[in-house]
Amino acid sequence: MNINVRLLIRPKPEVDESFLGYILRLTEKNLYETPSWILKMAGLGDKEFRQNNSLVFRPHENLDGLTQLVGVNVDGIAQLLYPPVAASDSTYLHYFFGQPVPQDLIRLNRPKICPACLSESPYCRRVWEFSAVTACPTHRRLLIDECPKCKRRISWSRKNVTVCPCNFDWREFPTPSVAEQQLRLICHIYQLCGIPVAGVGPLKVPEPISRLSLNDLLRVLFFVAGQQRGISAATSRHLVAAGKSQNFHSILTEAYSVFEDWPTNYFRFLDKRRVQERNVTRTYQRMKSALYGAFGSFYSGLYGVLSGSQFDFMRIAFIDYITQKQAEDCNLSRHPRKRDTGALNRPYVLKSDARRLLGIEYPWIDHHVRKGEIKTLVQSKGKKRLIFVDLIDITKVKLTQNSC
Ligand SMILES: [Zn+2]
Ligand SMILES: [Zn+2]
User: Fold this and answer.
1) What digits encode the pLDDT tens for the residues 16-34?
2) Using DSSP, how many helices (H) and how many strands (E) does the chain show?
3) Are residues 400 and 268 in the same domain?
4) How far is the CA of 138 from the centre of ligand 1 (A)?
5) Domain range holding 318?
6) Measured in angstroms, how far is the CA atom of residue 170 from the centroid of ligand 2?
7) Most buried of 100, 102, 113, 277, CB within 10 angstroms?
8) What is the dihedral of CA 370, 371, 374, 375, to 10 degrees?
9) pLDDT at 340
């Protein structure tokens, strides 16, 4: 590394500029062929630029070369990075506009752009690197991640900020416009990141998700998105992540709408989920829990991936849903055969389901059953005795306790 070298043209980074975008801008201004030159001169490695993405996720220990090269102090450059969250129990969290998020939500290998933003000011915005940001709320247009002319994926290995290696100037491309309703998630993300959106007033965020952090918001959205596509909770993010930005856009917008008009859309989602699950055979599991049988990985995800108390609203509304459904089913099935098989005119759930959904322990349930506050119902299934508890009783007792 030669720290005496200075670039001829040394623009300062913009506050919301992407680090790799800044390197690209330096490349363009100084007429280099590829950003790798700047990285080499800055002593940031001589690998291909593409493989150097990871430096954005490291703490800024070796920026001296770059600061020399561009005459900007370390802080000015460090603010463009996504440093790891120190003292975090999960080591893969990184700061994104001050919000801790998993590294895989920041996608550097598929750069996206808003041609209209580039027309106004030709530099790459950091916020475009977030996987869930798929449109520009200012221009109400989709971001693009492939060149509309040569159809190649946009890459960092180029020499111009706004012009494709095929010579097409992306600023000339009129990207598809997006309806206001499809921008709500992105406006929500901007709000959490403290990024103002020109021309948009105070945002009305759906109530149940209004208190979630960016990480939790994305967690619940990916969970729902995976469920809508029959992908189990654990892998949804990875499978969804393989897609193009446009696919992402429809997947996440659809998932976000589940939380709007709460709980109507959520109930509609649960209706669909139940139908979807009918085609899946989980014989052994059905024995353990009727709710698992009816909702599959959605049900297990409710107390698995979404076990934190910030997601209580999902479980509470789920209980409301099954209460409502069971009441409806009872009203519909007045004919004798159904009544013989243990017709319930109140919603009962397996004791084990009540424990999972409400986060309570068996001794607690037994205690209140003995006091006569919670009704139970016992059914035999082969050699097994299944114990059901009255869902309304149990939620009532739990709520009274919580409010004391
Ligand atoms: Zn824009
Ligand atoms: Zn092109």
Assistant:
1) 999 999 999 999 999 999 8
2) 18, 7
3) no
4) 5
5) 213-241+253-341
6) 8
7) 113
8) 60
9) 39
Q: Do both 231 and 365 map to the same domain?
A: no
Nearest ligand to the CA atom of 171: 1
Q: Is residue 219 within 8 Å of residue 236, measured between CB atoms?
A: no
| CA of 114 relative to ligand 1 center, distance in Å | 5
Residue 263, preceding bond cis, omega within 30 degrees?
yes
Name the closest ligand to CA 150.
2
> Is 226 in the same domain as 359?
no
221 and 76 co-located in one domain: no
Measure 131 CA to ligand 1 centroid, in angstroms: 16
- Which pLDDT band, with edges at 50, 70 and 90, does 358 fall under? confident
Q: Of 162, 180, 198, which closes a domain?
A: 180
Separation between Cα atoms, residue 161 and residue 220, nearest integer Å: 35
Q: What's the distance, CA 319 to chain centroid?
A: 24
CA distance 49 to 43: 13
Residue 82 lies in a domain: yes
Ligand 2 mean position to 150 CA, how many Å?
4
Task: Say how many Å lie between the CA of residue 158 and the centre of ligand 2.
Answer: 11
- Rounded CA-CA distance 354/217 in Å is 25
**240 pLDDT above the threshold of 90:** no
Centroid of ligand 1 to alpha carbon of 158 (angstroms):
21
Note whether 169 and 298 are same-domain residues. Answer: no
- For position 400, what pLDDT does the model report? 78
Distance 165 CA to ligand 2 centre (A): 6
47 pLDDT higher than 70: no
Pick from 290, 322, 341: which residue ends a domain?
A: 341
Ligand number, closest to the Cα atom of 164: 2
- Ligand with smallest separation from the Cα of 142: 1
Domain membership flag for residue 229: yes
Greatest CA separation for the chain: 91
**Mean pLDDT, to the nearest integer, of 128-151?**
95
Quick one: which ligand is closest to 147's CA?
Answer: 2
Which ligand is the nearest neighbour of the Cα of 167? Answer: 2
Q: Is the pLDDT of residue 348 over 90?
A: no
Query: pLDDT for 50-75, tens place per residue?
Result: 555 678 888 777 888 899 999 989 89
CA of 300 to the centre of ligand 1 (A): 40
What separation in Å is there between the alpha carbon of 198 and the centre of ligand 1? 10
Output the pLDDT for position 338: 42
